[in-house]
User: Fold this.
Amino acid sequence: MSGILYVVPTPIGNLEDITLRALRILKECDFIACEDTRQSLKLLSRFEISKPLISFYSYNQRYRVGQITDKLSDGKKVVLISDAGTPGISDPGYILVKEAIEKGVKTEVLPGASAVITALVGSGLPTDGFVFCGFLKRKTGKMKKELAELINLEKTIVFYESPHRMLKTVETCLEVFGENAKICLARELTKKFEEFIRGTIKEVLEDIKNRNSFLGEFVVLIYPKSDTEKEID
Ligand code: SAM
Assistant:
């Protein structure tokens, strides 16, 4: 009899953001596949959960998939978590879910914390349609091309970015979308220093240039048309 693969979101900062169902499934499973075992141990010990861990991160995931699907084929219940947020969203998960589906293993995905949705709703930008790009290409030319392909969409563009590349990335956004397009930098969501930096690209660029330090985790959101007054539900 086949087991079950559970994909379980974990908090993106505030440890209260884990569901009752997630905790029950973590307590009932046979194995937990996780990215950084030290990071996951901190979370699990906070909730007094002790289970065998299988390390599953970007560089070993292809090799580990077979081992995990063997356990699932043996009838085991395996939970996949990542360091923070929803597995599979700019985190390992896709390959395992795909393989489980192909092998006919039952897969249950729990809803829960993810920086992309939290940032989108808090941004004040249109939420009726959005394009999530994960992490953009790092080279400026390639990033510009990636963004330019989205310019005619009447949808909010969302991507993840690290603080040390932020200034250059916002400058690139200004070149692609113009200074009046609306942007929001959602910083340290659910944490002590949570902040939404909102404005036109020109205003937000000035703001971040004037800061001495610019730290934390960020989601960048842009609405490519200067008019955000859409009629939406
Ligand atoms: N799987 C995660 C999710 O569902 O959001 C994303 C993992 S990805 C490796 C990590 C990136 O997500 C960070 O570099 C940052 O851009 C974004 N992120 C994660 N937590 C965040 C937070 N609390 N505030 C803002 N951005 C966050």
About this structure: The radius of gyration is 20 Å. The chain has eight helices and ten strands.
